[in-house]
Amino acid sequence: MNLPEFQTLKVTTEHGVLLVQLNRPEVRNAMSLAMVHELIQVMDLAAEYSLRAVVLRGEQGHFCAGGDVQDMVKARMQAADATQADPYAALNRAFGRLLQKAEHLPCVLIVVLEGAVLGGGLGLTAVSDVAIAHHQAKFGLPETGLGLIPAQIAPFLVRRMGLTTTRRLALLGLRFDADEARRCGLIHEVAATDEDLQSLLEQTLQKVRQCAPQANRVTKQLLLSSPHEAELDGWLDRAAQHFSEAVRGAEGMEGTMAFMQKRPASWTQA
Question: ∠ at Cα 197 (191, 200), nearest 5°?
Fold first, then answer.
């Protein structure tokens, strides 16, 4: 398998398994648009070859701290040019396409979670087949606290955890630990130490290799089949527009500026 060069990822293969590491440790592996495009490229490659599994994890102690706010700042500059298509919706919808490709990956998708697992990182967790986490991992949906909305990840979180749980987590912008993530059904197993986490990964891969590859592919396809699947593209398109409106609105402007300036947003004073 010939792998291209990546700027935001470290990608290697080992015994039919593609190991993918998010590689922007200076921002806790926050997901830039460049990273989204590279992950889509990886998912396309993984679907093309007869792999047993894809393992997704983050470099240097964090999985993913969500979307990169710097990208929204760049999109705001592009939005000032009336000749440009809606950059906010395009930015947001690209991540939705990544989640769709990741969820429908023919082989098993395993996520290994450490440190920050926020926003988009939660979305990637929700579309995985197996999620294992270090007990010190911290999960959360910070979007509403920034005046934004979890536009592309919402349907995947509802599928994973149920409507009631997702409503509570999203509408309160909650942070929660690995034990609660397991209780919610977001993740499957929690490891006490780094060594235990690696051991859980190896055990999981061993079990994957005991299953017939084609049987796994067809089983996954059947499990994901839903009469509502045809509606998902349109739903995510509309969600991307809502996201764009949120970013352009007063709350989105204030929330992202407060984040950049490392201060509380104005609505926290009420």
Answer: 95
